[in-house]
Write a structure and sequence with these properties.
T6SS Phospholipase effector Tle1-like catalytic domain-containing protein, single chain, 11 helices, about 400 residues, ten-stranded mixed sheet
Length: about 400
């Protein structure tokens, strides 16, 4: 019987073992962890590693397996050890961890659903592109329960995938040289000769759901003036593969850090992109419970979209106790170190693609009746400059 395979990649900061600033007994976690906690399925106790990675499984008519990964997961991770000190080993490891998990569980007809925020948003978008390009590891040829060998195969597949993407880019001469220099630090097995039957093609990925993908890696890396080391890992393009049926993207409207420029998907059928009030983590989560009213809006919206019968994510009857609040606290991280020393400014000059809509919660926060466009009484003064031009036209609100 077909099942869902769900891979949840969290960001750089808050995971399930995060701090608890409001002392309510609930860690200040992101929407990725909250979403994972809502998924139907029982915890696989042997998968709980230092709260940085966990797995769920549900059998029956709504069969589903799911994995949550915070950062690179368990500090004893074999993939990191295999990669050694190669630049970007954490980036590669996150993608390969997801790749081997999906490969290990996939059977023809299964629905692959990838979820992420921040660095995790890059992870799942890159993972989706990798699966679409090269397929998954062949379980008929390899014993994928041997995780160390599976990681070696996954790193090899990633290297081939990225090399092909870099070569396909226009004016890739200099970039290819940088890529080749970095790849020389990969272990030898990454360059082993591969056979056509090492991987099996995957016809479709059901959905990719992400909160606020920014920069070329999902979140900026500050590595020096030219940033050339990062460039070889960036998205080859912003077009979601046609093998991905649905893309769901929640975006920050109010983020002002220049390096947090949103990375949109190109418009096409099956893609939904919506703006939400607040900064980066006001959309993707990570603040204390009593400061998460805005991010809970974006989280419940995402779960509703992914739970649509067309996608079919299975959730528990009584999921996380969300408290969405139109008038919730909006944070300004650009006023705090180290971001207060870096370039900033409203997302005013960002040309939002015409398919990107504003979530209806923004209208309520602004005190606008979304049906009539007329102002109503509201105590919170909120007028996002990034929507100034659109507000003068026929604004379309999304729910």
């Amino acid at each position: 019987m077909p099942k869902n395979i769900v891979f949840c990649a969290d960001g750089t900061w808050n995971g399930p073992n995060s701090k608890d600033d409001d002392n309510d007994g609930i860690p200040d976690t992101t929407n990725v962890w909250k979403a994972f906690c809502t998924l139907a399925g029982d915890a696989k106790l042997d998968s709980v590693l230092l709260a940085s990675e966990q797995e769920l499984e549900q059998t029956g008519p709504e069969a589903q397996v799911a994995k949550y990964l915070h950062g690179v997961g368990d500090s004893r991770n074999v993939a990191i050890k295999l990669l050694g000190g190669v630049f970007g080993n954490g980036i590669i490891a996150r993608i390969v961890r997801g790749y081997t998990y999906v490969s290990r569980n996939y059977e023809p007809g299964d629905a692959i659903i990838l979820i992420g925020f921040s660095r995790g948003a890059y992870t799942v978008r890159a993972l989706g592109g990798m699966i679409a390009d090269v397929g998954l590891l062949n379980p008929q040829k390899f014993d994928l329960s041997d995780k160390e060998h599976a990681y070696m195969l996954g790193i090899n597949a990633w290297r081939r995938h990225r090399e092909a993407r870099v070569k396909a880019r226009q004016n890739a001469g200099g970039l290819l040289g940088i890529f080749s220099a970095l790849m020389r630090h990969l272990p030898q097995f990454a360059f082993d000769t591969s056979e056509p039957d090492d991987t099996v093609p995957v016809d479709s990925i059901k959905a990719i759901g992400v909160w606020d993908t920014v920069g070329s890696l999902g979140i900026p890396l500050y590595l020096g003036a030219n940033g050339s080391d990062v460039d070889v890992f960036r998205f080859a393009d912003t077009a979601l593969s046609n093998k991905v049926a649905f893309g769901v993207h929640a975006l920050s409207l109010d983020e002002q850090r220049s390096d947090f420029t949103p990375t949109f998907w190109d418009a096409r059928d099956g893609i939904t992109q919506a703006l939400f009030a607040g900064a980066h983590a006001d959309v993707g989560g990570g603040y204390p419970t009593d400061e998460s009213g805005l991010s809970d809006i974006a989280c419940t919206w995402m779960l509703e979209r992914l739970g649509d019968p067309a996608i079919g994510l299975h959730v528990k009857p009584q999921p996380w106790a969300f408290k969405p609040d139109f008038f919730g606290m909006g944070h300004e991280p650009w006023t705090q170190p180290p971001f207060n020393l870096l370039p900033k400014g409203p997302r005013t000059p960002i040309p939002f693609p015409k398919d990107v809509g504003a979530h209806i919660s923004i209208a309520h926060r602004m005190g606008i009746d979304p049906k009539t466009g007329q102002r109503v009484a509201v105590t919170l003064k909120y007028l996002p400059t990034a929507l100034a031009e659109q507000l003068g036209t026929n604004m379309v609100w999304m729910d």
